[in-house]
Amino acid sequence: MTTVVPAATNAQAVAWHHRHLIDVDVVTCPEIALIMRTTDVMRGILARPIRKVPALNGRRVTTLFYEASTRTRVSFETAARNLSADVVSVSTATSSVTKGESLVDTVRTLEALGAEILVMRHAVSGAPYLAAEVFGGHVLNGGDGWHAHPTQALLDLYTMRENLPGGDLRGRKVAIVGDILHSRVARSNIWTLTAAGADLWLCGPATLLRGMDRWAAAWAGGAIPGHGRFNVTSDIAAALRDADVVMGLRIQRERMQGGLLPSLREYAARFQLNAERVSLAKPDAIVMHPGPMNEGVEIAPDVAISGRSVITDQVANGVAVRMALLYLLAGAHEAARVPAHEAARGGPRAR
Ligand code: CP
User: Fold this and answer.
1) What are the residue ranges of helices labelled H in the chain?
2) Is the CB of 142 within 6 Å of ligand 1?
3) Does the Cβ of 67 fall within 6 Å of ligand 1?
4) In degrees, to the nearest 5, what angle opens at C-alpha 247 toward C-alphas 243 and 252?
């Protein structure tokens, strides 16, 4: 098993060579380690009275969200501004998308208007790949359909490392409970957490786990080098017992086909992360949720705000992780020919 963050590796020994970030399945373990270290630097910037550095001065970041978002959109825009980028925010509800403009035409139009880095969210899985085919700059996926939410998985990983002794996930039990079937967060977390060596358990009603057992069986055979196996179960007690991390996932009513759940009340009765169930986890286990939460459905309100909860830490870490990714994708570290910690001191300007 490859550890995600080798303790004493020189950050500059790992080059970032991805033009886009659409899925974490192409990001290697050393690259994840680079993202984590760069995020540490960005956290340092965010701890200052003035949270701004000139690393992306003059660069143009455009957000294009075809689906609702609070956390991802606001944190990307905040991250870009913290790096001194110019930010344009396109709301599809008030754009020419409402007049029938295609994704390809919209992306070409935004590029003609100066977009260099495009952060997009789309309800259709794979839409960012199409955008990347026609866009001359960098595409960052802010979540596409059921497919991937790479920045969420990376901020989840960062938050777990921050809260687990030694920052090491090897052998740590992580239970993800909820609507796994429709969850791009779960799919991206499978890649990052198995790369980190976590003992990953996915849990929910059988109808919301469809296909996961085949995926788990394939990986158990060592199908993906560097990634460990994971478990799939509808036994909530087995999933939560002695867990180090408990993560709830939203019941995605908008993606639910008829018949997948008898009722939200029955789901809550059998799978809600309430105080009694969470007590099965280790006494110092942390509780996570990517948001938005349906409190009273997949998570009890008292658990969401309990001393174990690091849900607001996840949101805050989202800004630092996205600063790191914008910085790496924009090539600021190469253009400036300085490591992130020097750029954080206000070093040479990126392009
Ligand atoms: N976790 C997440 O993607 O939240 P938003 O939908 O608010 O961006």
Assistant:
1) 29-46, 71-82, 103-112, 127-134, 150-163, 184-195, 212-220, 236-240, 264-271, 275-278, 301-304, 311-329, 332-336, 340-343
2) no
3) no
4) 145
pLDDT at 13: 65
CA 82 to centroid of ligand 1, rounded, Å: 20
Judge if the beta carbon of residue 137 lies within 6 A of ligand 1: no
Nearest atom within ligand 1 for CA of residue 70: 7
pLDDT recorded at residue 76: 98
Tokens of 244: 């180090």
Two tokens at 276? 């009694």
Q: What is the pLDDT of residue 219?
A: 86
Is the minimum distance from the CB of 58 to ligand 1 under 6 angstroms? no
Nearest Cα residue to atom 4 of ligand 1: 71
Q: Is 69 in the pocket of ligand 1 (CB under 6 A)?
A: yes
Question: Phi, psi at residue 252, to the nearest 5°?
Answer: -85, 85
pTM above 0.70, yes or no: yes
The rounded average pLDDT for each run of 10 residues, N- to C-terminus, in the chain (351 residues) is: 34 80 96 97 97 96 96 98 97 87 96 98 97 97 98 98 95 97 97 96 96 91 82 98 98 75 90 98 98 96 98 98 97 57 45 26
Nearest to 228 by CA among 216, 214, 243: 216
Ligand 1 pocket check for 143: Cβ under 6 Å: yes
Q: What stretch of H or E contains 206? A: none
Residue 9, CA atoms < 13 Å, CB-side half-sphere: 20
